Amino acid sequence: MSDHHVVVVGGGFGGLQLVNGLKGAGVKITLVDRRNHHLFQPLLYQVATTILSTSEIAWPIRRLYADRPDVTVLLAEVTGVDSGAKTVSLRNDMTLGYDTLVLATGATHAYFGHDEWEPVAPGLKTLEDATTIRRRVLLAFEKAEMEAHPAVRDALLTFTIVGAGPTGVELAGIIAELAHFTLPKEFRNIDTRKTRVVLVEAGPRVLPTFAEELSAYAQKALEKLGVEIHLGKPVTECNADGVKIGETFVASRTIVWAAGVTASPAAQWLGVPADRAGRVVVEKDLSAPGLPDVFVVGDTASVMREDGKPVPGIAPAAKQQGGYVAKVIRARMSGKPAPAPFRYWHQGSLATIGKSAAIIDFGRIKLKGWLAWWIWGLAHIYFLIGTRSRFSVAWSWLWIYLSGQHSARLITQRETMREEG
Questions:
Q1: Structure confidence by residue, pLDDT tens digits, 382-395
Q2: Within a 13 Å sphere around the CA of 50, how many CA atoms are in the beta-carbon half?
């Protein structure tokens, strides 16, 4: 093994794909992440909505690389990069030297200048976010069961999701199913079928990145589940009592933010140009401008496709970028010519609407309904890590499909963001 040290910041899809691609390359790798687990983010909303448990979509990073002596895993948070000295600073005052640095630090919620909304409208990026949202959803029903005041009870039974991208649509569909089909027999003082699920989108349609016909199908499927959809009006106010949609106030005690993301501060660390979302505008080989030994992948990178459209911030894109950078590093180590500039291959877009409807956009091929839901499920099971996780998730979905019962309806996390009544 050579002394070449590759530091990878971020254990998401891009970071792990890169580490996997460097197996046998003869380099030393240090993988740094703020959490000790890799998260399968595409199914995070199913933890938030009581379908799956946390252990079914997350795996300890150390376990993944227990048989890779070339990989050192550190549980730490990066606070800065000195590209001149080629060092990475950690919050515990530790400094890591690197020969090659790969930043795969992801993104977080964007509140468009209203960060004060975050305590009452959490986003969905981490397991902590998912369990917080799950707790709030379940507590809302519990509080409504004991609430005597009709207006307060109605507010408790109103759930608002801001943003109608895939995450917002999937959350709205499952919360509606939970309220209208799973819970009615379990409560005595309230009728959970009267629950309001409000989906707000500032743009003209739900799922704006999908073809219009699929977007229209998704909207009809949501409305069939009882979801109220507000289009063309942004949220102008958000507090513990509810949201203001344009000029209309909706009393809602549970709000989820799914409207936008902003990149990690990687561009600030490096002192390089960034786009409006804070993503590093990378070179064609995914290196940072003027820093050939620093690469940026995944949601932290702004990458353009050949047609001039940006590469979407989804898991397949991050994995392709991580695998590409591994090839670049291998070529440099072996003295071989660098691979051709990165090209993104779009494998399709998928979204679910409840337990038996989905849409899939493969470009020329577009699917919707029951068949799309099964293909969506098989695709996600395939990309899960380990046989146990695949079996567990498949069984959870089959059980819900047959019985209508959600198995992960446990209130276990202490509420810290809002006073419990």
A1: 999 888 899 999 99
A2: 24
